[in-house]
Write a structure and sequence with these properties.
Elements (H helix, E strand, L loop, with lengths): L1 H6 L1 E4 L7 E4 L1 H5 L1 H12 L9 E5 L2 H13 L2 E5 L9 E7 L4 E7 L8 E9 L3 H12 L3 E10 L14 E6 L1
Parallel strand pairs: 3-4, 3-7, 7-8, 8-9
Antiparallel strand pairs: 1-2, 5-6
The structure holds adenosine monophosphate.
């Protein structure tokens, strides 16, 4: 984990003053670190019967797809409004900076699915909690949520209730 931590780049005041952005592109750029992050994100959920990984636009697509392939699961994208071509469900939520909404195809999940949420980072937990709400509304079971980074001081994990939360790095 120290190897991954050493490659996380802090960008001060991005995308706005007061935010220290955790840039994971150097981790993605390194083949060994990308593989390590994928394996470690998936590790606690190998025997959990995950059928679908849910990933949020945009960095959740990268880590989420890799974890889905690692677990032999499918992948469902949660996208910003207006991007998905078919009928959608939408949820609005607050961010560490600003507010946003995400959409999911209405037929993406069924009650038989076992869902793992994957994103690069959990801050306030607003994005993840909104995403889990979309998944839960479909009747699917929530297996857990996995993040490369958790910003512990923002308490995002509390926003996810009793969901099993796994994070590789803590700040
Ligand atoms: P939140 O909804 O507050 O948990 O914010 C999580 C989402 O915002 C994730 O999709 C992150 O990619 C992004 N995000 C929030 N804060 C940061 C940060 N300090 N560095 C990088 N990404 C962040």
């Amino acid at each position: 984990m120290e190897q991954i931590a050493a490659s996380v780049r802090d960008i001060v005041d991005f995308p706005q003053p007061g935010i220290v952005f955790k840039d994971l592109t150097p981790v993605m750029r390194d083949p060994a670190l990308l593989r390590l992050a994928t394996v470690e994100l998936a590790r606690p959920f190998r025997d959990s019967g995950v059928t679908v990984v849910l990933g949020m636009e945009a960095r959740g697509f990268i880590f989420g797809s890799l974890v889905a392939a690692e677990l032999g699961a499918g992948f469902v994208p949660l996208r910003k409004p207006g991007k998905l071509p078919y009928a959608t469900h939408r949820v609005a939520y607050d961010l560490e900076y600003g507010s946003a909404a995400l959409e999911m195809h209405q037929d993406a999940l069924s009650a038989a699915d076992r869902v793992l949420l994957v994103d690069d980072l959990i801050a306030t937990g607003g994005t993840a909690s909104a995403s889990l709400q979309l998944a839960a509304n479909s009747g699917a079971s929530i297996v857990g949520a996995a993040f490369v980074i958790e910003l512990d001081f923002l308490g995002g994990r509390q926003a996810l209730g009793n969901c099993r939360v796994h994070a590789l790095l803590h700040y």
